[in-house]
Design a protein that fits this description.
heterodimer, A: alpha/beta, Pyruvate-ferredoxin Oxidoreductase, domain 3, 6-stranded mixed sheet, 6 strands, about 20% strand, B: alpha/beta, Rossmann fold, 2 domains, 8-stranded mixed sheet, 5-stranded mixed sheet, 12 helices
């Protein structure tokens, strides 16, 4: 079944990397098909960045996401630009501390940046916390797959930190779903 | 894997060992991948000062016997045109990857387009025939880069991989083959002149440093390679040979995919719009739609249009104002409808459905 994911935040949060990781998890470790695309805007740091992933058990024809059924939103500007018009039956995971608006669709508030800063001590892993929450709450890829994909993509020496971030995200995702 | 990276990997699999280039969005990842990989496999990566120097370096590398490539996008491609003509005239095998973005001029650096399809065909001056491929997936970024090298080497001419931003920047699943069929250029045999062509119109290649004395010039030249610029007969024979060696092989090198040959409404497509077309055709089997998907656009495989004997209309969605649509029009008697999309985004399935409806009500 085709599922469409859109991620948005501000440049520098690792939105693109998160999309690449979850796409990689699907293709390399869950045996699915996935296509990752992104908006290549000039906004390197600070502006709204957006990436998208299509997942399917079958080869993917149309590669773009137009009307996502899952959204991960990590900034207010990202919400306004890429989240505000989410369709009614979509699910949105939003960073509780950074997004002030709330959508009309179902949503989970994830304290990704708060946990990254407070519990993990590195705000830079907020995107990985979000990935953990995404996987735990939607099952879009398996936990084993996302862990292997995270390890493939993160710099040497940060593996433990990133795995802890991922697991913190699992906990938040499970809490949100209850 | 990303499309641009896949193109670099395909080049390496095909035997490319020289890359000269200048970074430009949305093709930069090709150069980045080559910069990482070339030193590890005994190849050479050179970042040149601009695109004119890049193509010149690639031409020089090719004459040393290396398989050589550059990658660019519209503005860089424009700068390369003069030396593309030089490569055509001197019969220098090389591959140019053009990941197309919105033009004219610097246009839309980060958005997709297919606006250079006629530029690659006719952009350099004089009569010419070129080979241009158009991938519609990350897999084809790999496969068709290999093919571009094989065709360039075989026909001793530049070959273009005319990708677009969507396919170049997309990441998706790819299967890297254990083995790829590789074609190497035929060396010049002793006792033959450097520009003495066989029946196929392609002369053997005298690699620099292997004992041949060759004059390489963009001027009209005789079989020795010496300039002869006022002999009408010689000039006509040379240009006809350069064009003929590619055009006469048109059927043999044609590369296309046919879906539903009985269809009455037929899409002709290449590059990323083909993905939208395939989605619409898969979602609407009741509409009786056919697809002619061109993996190789130039030389144009006009005979492929005859694969659809029941066609009542051809729809040609492109990220330009109808560059290949006009070519289709030259070869069929039924209406041809251009479905242009400018602005950098992919046609949506809904837009294609509207085009089908309009075409049917004509």
């Amino acid at each position: 079944m085709r599922r469409e994911l859109r991620l948005s935040g501000f440049g520098g949060q690792g939105i693109m990397l998160a999309a690449v990781i979850v796409g990689r998890a699907a293709v390399m470790y869950d045996g699915m098909y996935a296509v990752q695309t992104q908006v290549y805007g000039p906004e390197a740091r600070g502006g709204a960045s957006m990436a998208a992933v299509v997942f399917d058990d079958e080869p993917i024809l149309y590669p773009k996401v137009s009307d996502p059924d899952i959204l991960v939103i990590m900034s207010q500007e990202g919400f306004e630009k890429y989240g505000a018009n989410a369709r009614a039956d979509a699910l949105m995971l939003l960073d509780r501390g950074l997004v002030h608006s709330r959508p009309s669709c179902r949503y989970y508030e994830i304290p990704a940046t708060e946990d990254a800063r407070g519990i993990l001590g590195k705000v830079i892993v907020a995107n990985i916390v979000m990935l953990g929450a995404l996987v735990a709450s939607t099952g879009v890829v398996s936990r084993e797959a996302i862990e292997r994909a995270v390890l493939d993509q993160v710099p040497k020496g940060t593996e433990d930190l990133n795995l802890r971030a991922l697991r913190q995200g699992y906990t938040r995702g499970e809490e949100a779903r209850e | 894997m990303q499309g641009n990276t896949a193109s670099a990997e395909g080049a390496i699999a095909a035997g490319c060992r020289f890359f000269g280039g200048y970074p430009i969005t949305p093709s930069t990842e090709v150069a980045e991948a080559m910069a990482r990989r070339m030193p590890k496999i005994g190849g050479v990566f050179v970042q040149m000062e601009d695109e004119i120097a890049s193509i010149a370096a690639v031409i020089g590398a090719s004459w040393t016997g290396k398989k050589a490539m550059t990658s660019t996008s519209g503005p860089g491609f424009s700068l390369m045109l003069e030396n593309i003509g030089f490569a055509l005239m001197t019969e220098t095998p090389l591959v140019i990857v053009n990941v197309q973005r919105g033009g004219p001029s610097t246009g839309q650096p980060t958005m997709s387009a297919q606006g250079d399809m006629l530029q690659c065909r006719f952009g350099s001056h004089g009569d010419m025939a070129v080979i241009a491929l158009a991938p519609d997936s990350v897999q084809e970024m790999y496969d068709l880069t290999v093919k571009a090298f094989n065709l360039a080497e075989r026909f001793r001419c530049p070959a273009f991989l005319m990708a677009d931003e969507i396919i170049g920047h997309m990441r998706e699943r790819i299967e890297l083959p254990d083995h790829v069929d590789v074609v190497d250029r035929r060396p010049l045999e002793s006792g033959h002149l450097p520009y003495e062509a066989g029946e196929d119109g392609v002369p053997g290649f005298p690699v620099f440093g292997t004992g041949h004395r060759v004059h390489v010039t963009g001027l009209t030249h005789d079989e020795r390679g010496y300039p002869v610029t006022t002999d009408p007969v010689l000039h006509e024979a040379l240009v006809r040979r350069l064009v003929g060696k590619v055009e006469n092989a048109r059927r043999e090198i044609a590369d296309y995919r046919v879906t539903n040959p009985d269809a009455e409404v037929v899409f002709v497509c290449y590059g990323s719009p083909a993905r939208a077309v395939q989605q619409v055709v898969a979602d609407h089997p009741d509409l009786g739609l056919g697809i002619l998907r061109l993996r190789l656009v130039w030389p144009f495989p006009e005979h492929a249009l005859a694969e659809f004997p029941n066609a009542r209309v051809f729809l040609v969605p492109e990220q330009n104002l109808g560059q290949v649509a006009r070519e289709v029009e030259r070869h069929v008697l039924v209406p041809v409808v251009s479905v242009p999309k400018l602005g950098g985004e992919l046609h949506t399935p809904a837009e294609l459905l509207r085009a089908i409806e309009e075409a049917r009500s004509r």
